[in-house]
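Progress note, project year one: complex with uridine-5'-diphosphate-glucuronic acid.
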Amino acid sequence: MRISVIGCGYLGAVHAACMAELGHDVVGLDVDEARIESLAAGRAPFHEPGFPELLARNVESGRLRFTTDPSLIADSEIHFIGVGTPQLDGALAADLRYVDAAIETVMDHAAPRTEGRPVLVAGKSTVPVGTAQRLADRLAGSGKNIILAWNPEFLREGYAVQDTLHPDRLVYGLPEDRGQGDVAKAILDECYATPLADGTPLVVANYPTAELVKVAANSFLATKISFINAMAELCEATGGDVSRLAEAIGHDDRIGKKFLQAGIGFGGGCLPKDIRAFMARAEELGVDEALTFLREVDAINLRRRHHAVELAEEAAGGSVAGARVAVLGITFKPDTDDLRDSPALDIAMRLRDRGARLVVADPAAGDELRRRHPGLDVADSVEDAVREADVVMVLTPWRDYLDLDPEALGDLVATRTIIDGRNVLDPRRWHDAGWNYHGMGRGVSAW
Ligand code: UGA
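Model obtained:
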C-alpha cells in the first residue's frame, strides 16, 4: 500500500520503517529538516535498539522515503498521524496543535478521490477523548472523500521495533457510520495483514473507546508503579523490603509481576503527561471525580524524586553541599536516549542546585547532556564518574550497571555509599563489600 506517516519522532519514524518492513511503500513527513535529513540518509536520529538496521535496510530498498515536502503525500491511501501531543505550558491538558496541523496538511495535499475507496487518515497520537470525532467532522468538510480511524499505539521505547512489528494487540476506533467503518476497517486490515495473519488480537470499537483505551492503559501502568512505590514508603517506615513484597504479591496471577519495580518512579514522554491530560479532560467532561486517584498516582510518583534527594542528603551526612555525587544513568529508562521528564535527570539537577559537586554518566545520552547542560560534568565511563565520589547513585537501570563490581568500584570512591534508585543491585553483596547500601523501600536485611 502507499502510506504516509506524518510526524517522524519516536513513534512516527519507527512506524514508518516498520510499515516499509511489512512491504508497504512509505513516505515519512516532518517539519524538522535535520531529523528528516538524517532519516533520509538512513541514520537513526535517536537511540532505539534494532531501529538503525531496520531504517537503513528499508531506505536502501527504496520503499521508505523521508521528506519535508507535503506534496509527496498526495497519492497515499493511508495517512498515519504520529505527531506529538505534549503537555501544554502551564496546564495539565495536551497541546493538540500538531495534530490539527497534520489534519490540515492531509486536507491540503491529499489528491481528491472521485472514484474508488476513500483515503484513510489513521490517528496514532495520544489524544483527549472526543478529538477523533472533531477531526472526522473536519475531514468530512474537505470534500475529498477522506475518512478517519483511530488506531492507538502502544509501543514502548527500547522495544519500539518489536512492539510495532509484533504488537500485543491492534485497536481500531471506527466511525459510527457502518458503511464508512467497514471501509476503514478493510483498509487497516490490508495494511496490518502480516501481524493479523500472525494472530495479533484485534479490538474494534468506536472512536471514544479507542481514544480511551490508550490513556486507560497508560493510567493503569502508572497506577501499578505508584502503588508499589506507595508500598515502598510503608517499607521505608517499617523496615520492610518492597522488592520481596512485590515478588510475593506478583505470584498471584491476578496481580502479576510486571511493572512492580519500585524506585524513583516513572517518567518519559508518555506516562506523566498522559495521566495529567486524562485528568484535565475528565474535568472538562464533568467526571473529574472518576480520576481523582490519578492525582495521588502523580503525587506518589513525584514524592519518589524528593525522597531520593533526601536519601542523598542523609547519606552525605545531612547536606550534599560540597559533596561529590556520581549519578549513573540519566535517561528516563534504559535502552533509550530520551531525557523527557526523566526522574534521574530531575534528581541530578536538584542535587546540583543544592550544591553537590555532580558528575553524571549515561551509556546513551552523554552527548545530548553536554549539549543541553554545558556546565554539567559528564563522564565517559563509570570509573571516571565515581572517582573520589562521596555518594554514588544508580538512577537508571542500564544493563551495564547491574553487574557493577562493588570491590573494584570501592577502590575508586572516597566513601563507599551507594543509593540504588531502582532496586536493581544486590544489597547483601554491596553491604558485604563494605558499602552503605540504600535502596528505595529496602535495605540490607537478614532475609
Ligand atoms: C509507555 C507505555 O509502557 C507504552 O505501552 C506506551 O505505548 C507508551 O508509554 C506511550 O504512550 O507512547 P514508555 O514511555 O516507553 O512506554 O515507558 P515504560 O516502559 O512504560 O516506562 C515508563 C517509566 O516507568 C520509566 O521511567 C520506567 O523506569 C518506569 N517504571 C516502569 C518503573 O518505575 N517501574 C516499573 O515497574 C516499570
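DSSP finds 18 helices and 14 strands in the chain.
Residues 207-238 form the longest helix (32 residues).
No further modelling is planned for this target in the current period.
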